[in-house]
Design a protein that fits this description.
Number of strands: 7
Strand order of the largest sheet: 3-4-5
Structural class: alpha/beta
Helix content: 25-40%
Organism: Cavenderia fasciculata (Slime mold)
CATH superfamily of the largest domain: NAD(P)-binding Rossmann-like Domain
Strand content: 15-25%
GO molecular function: metal ion binding; oxidoreductase activity, acting on the CH-OH group of donors, NAD or NADP as acceptor
CATH architecture of the largest domain: 3-Layer(aba) Sandwich
Keywords: Metal-binding, Oxidoreductase, Zinc
Order of helices and strands: EHEHEHEHEHEHE
CATH class of the largest domain: Alpha Beta
Distance between the termini: 37 Å
Number of domains: 2
Number of helices: 6
Protein name: Zinc-containing alcohol dehydrogenase
Length: about 150
Amino acid sequence: MGYEVIAVSSNMDKEKLAKELGAHHYFVSSETANTQIQAMGGAKLIVCTAPSQSVVEKIEGALGAGGSIVIVAAIPELKINPIRMLSMNQSVCGRYSGDSRDSEDCLHFSKIQGVHPMIQKYKLDQVNECFENIGNARFRSVIVIRNDNE
């Protein structure tokens, strides 16, 4: 969509995946990441998918002038610096997603942008292995159980 994408996570484990999925930069969430993002001009938009109060509170410092934070994860409480946000013309909003219109928009966007799911297939006799690995998927892939004839 014309933006330079920066992925931020808690460790370096996800860097390869983030870049394979199109991130231009990858930073570990810390004060250093905020400094690096601010050196690039600050973030125009931060989409926070981590259900962690401390993550959102830390990443607020990466937001640039006129920028917005969109929270799409359930966070029970959030402490932000309203003076900084007012002086920098920044905003925070929440976005509930998950209804049928969101799914339709997501599928349409995926089609026109060539976004494809990562699929890991298991044969029916590997069902136990599949269920053992579900915890490792971390919403990065779709797990399909199929019979031997497929």
